[in-house]
């Protein structure tokens, strides 16, 4: 059924809100921003055509307050809601409330979100769809269950205990020895309960030196499903992605197999809109295993846009209006390589949050650089939300090209003062010989952190002042120079 989007309320803040507003501006669709009290002067608020205050700082009172967001949409004359990523993006109940309020939900159907949000159910569906899954056991409530499963299936350590609901690395605990099982199980269940309100956990064999490969898929209401090839999301810290690239370094035959498998699964579950199928790749056996389906726009979707020339958010708007996909599978021909780094307000040595005012912000320029800002110079990075405030992407004819541009972007024009960021660490990573050679796993940062940290020194405002002082001292000592 054809529908027309007249105005979009973006149920998010920062980087995701700004990203969606960019496409809405391209399509001449007005937008509504929502904001909490500390975000009243935030970048996304000024980008929107309308802005509505929805509550105090804690997310439960603002960005997680679904009823208040729907009220804001109705009050602002918005007839559609895009959730971005994070907050309510994968909340099936919120999606259903949006639809029940007579608004257009820009995302997959609520029943699909609910089905894929349960990792146990999602894994079973993948299994029935002939998609390889990691050996595991579900609904674990005791250490004895884990011990019996390992013995019966001849499973060796390490193993991973994971929350059945949610994602983002929360409720995941690695176990290396039998005596760790009881404590790890209790920890995983406790974290799962706090993060997702559900302490159900599953246990899986842990793949050593695994690589994280995800396939971007778009689908419409007319049963058309198209994959936009894959991304490499292996570089992580604390189970959170930090650097992504597209395409991955997989051999072409394997690339085709994993992408077709992802599209087949999404067709099987009746998926619509944009979504991602995540896999764990085992280089030792050249095997891949299903991990989960992300029923939303991914942070790293921009690098897929760079290599395909497509606007994934625009496709989501088309699908929400009931239109068929604007592309067929044979139309999607990647002809570039792209890289993304996440600029978080964190100490690059410890990953501790670094909140405060951005006193100086200069973003990289030049060919093949794409910057997505979620905050502006002079803006505060509040302690209540995710610390991501900038996505920096580069592209090139091949991977080496994209890496060279990223090196230039991180060392050239980029200047951030007032807060600490991951920029020095990101630069150390992209210059590391093993990363350049494509020899890395999800444990790369963990294994090389001391070496990576030793390779950088943060530039601060004090450094700038010292240079000025040195210049003044030299002129004072030597007197006026001929070039002055």
TrEMBL record:
Signal peptide: none annotated. Residues 4-450 form the Biotin carboxylation domain. GO terms for molecular function: ATP binding; biotin carboxylase activity; metal ion binding. SMART domains: Biotin_carb_C. It is an enzyme of class 6 (ligase). SUPFAM superfamilies: Glutathione synthetase ATP-binding domain-like, PreATP-grasp domain, Rudiment single hybrid motif. Keywords: ATP-binding, Biotin, Ligase, Nucleotide-binding. Pfam families: Biotin_carb_C (PF02785), Biotin_carb_N (PF00289), CPSase_L_D2 (PF02786). PROSITE patterns: ATP_GRASP, BC, CPSASE_1, CPSASE_2. Its EC number is 6.3.4.14. The keyword Nucleotide-binding applies. Residues 123-321 form the ATP-grasp domain. It comes from the Bacteria. PANTHER family: CARBOXYLASE:PYRUVATE/ACETYL-COA/PROPIONYL-COA CARBOXYLASE, METHYLCROTONOYL-COA CARBOXYLASE SUBUNIT ALPHA, MITOCHONDRIAL-RELATED. This is biotin carboxylase.
């Amino acid at each position: 059924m054809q529908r027309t989007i007249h105005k979009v309320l973006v149920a998010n803040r920062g980087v995701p809100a700004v990203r969606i507003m960019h496409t809405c501006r391209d399509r001449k669709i007005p937008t509504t921003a929502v904001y909490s009290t500390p975000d009243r002067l935030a970048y996304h608020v000024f980008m929107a055509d309308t802005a509505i205050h929805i509550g105090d700082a804690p997310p439960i009172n603002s960005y997680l307050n679904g009823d208040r967001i729907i009220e804001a949409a109705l009050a602002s004359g918005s007839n559609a809601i895009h959730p971005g990523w994070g907050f309510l993006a994968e909340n099936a109940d919120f999606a259903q409330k949006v639809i029940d309020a007579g608004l257009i939900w820009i995302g997959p159907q609520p029943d699909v979100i609910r089905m894929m949000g349960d990792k146990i159910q999602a894994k079973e569906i993948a299994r029935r769809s002939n998609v390889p899954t990691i050996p595991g056991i579900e609904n674990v409530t005791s250490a004895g269950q884990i011990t019996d499963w390992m013995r019966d299936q001849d499973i060796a350590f390490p193993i991973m205990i994971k929350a059945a609901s949610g994602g983002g690395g929360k409720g995941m605990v690695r176990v290396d020895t039998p005596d760790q099982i009881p404590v790890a199980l209790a920890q995983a269940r406790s974290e799962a309960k706090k993060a997702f309100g559900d302490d159900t956990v599953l246990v899986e064999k842990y793949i050593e030196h695994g690589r994280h490969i995800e396939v971007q898929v778009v689908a419409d209401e007319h049963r058309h499903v198209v994959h936009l090839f894959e991304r490499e999301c292996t570089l992580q810290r604390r189970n959170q992605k930090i650097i992504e690239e597209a395409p991955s370094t997989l051999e072409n035959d394997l690339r085709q197999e994993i992408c077709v498998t992802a599209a087949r699964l999404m067709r099987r579950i009746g998926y619509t809109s944009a979504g991602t199928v995540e896999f764990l790749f085992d280089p030792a056996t050249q095997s891949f295993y299903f991990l989960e389906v992300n029923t939303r726009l991914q942070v790293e979707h921009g690098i897929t846009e760079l290599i395909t020339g497509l606007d994934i958010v625009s496709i989501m708007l088309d699908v929400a209006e009931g239109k068929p996909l604007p592309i067929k599978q044979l139309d999607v021909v990647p002809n570039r390589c792209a890289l993304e780094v996440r600029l978080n307000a964190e100490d690059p040595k410890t990953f501790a949050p670094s909140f405060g005012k951005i006193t100086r912000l200069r973003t990289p320029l030049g060919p093949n650089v794409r910057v997505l800002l979620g905050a502006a110079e002079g803006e505060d990075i509040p302690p209540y939300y995710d610390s991501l405030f900038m996505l920096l992407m580069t592209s090139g004819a091949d991977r080496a090209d994209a890496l060279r541009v990223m090196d230039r972007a991180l060392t050239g024009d980029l200047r951030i003062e007032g807060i600490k960021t991951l920029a020095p660490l990101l630069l150390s990573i992209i210059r590391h010989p093993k990363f350049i050679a494509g020899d890395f796993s999800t444990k790369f940062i963990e294994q090389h952190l001391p070496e990576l940290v030793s390779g950088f020194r943060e530039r601060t405002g004090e450094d700038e002042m010292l240079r000025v002082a040195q210049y003044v001292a030299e002129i004072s000592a030597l007197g006026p120079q001929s070039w002055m």
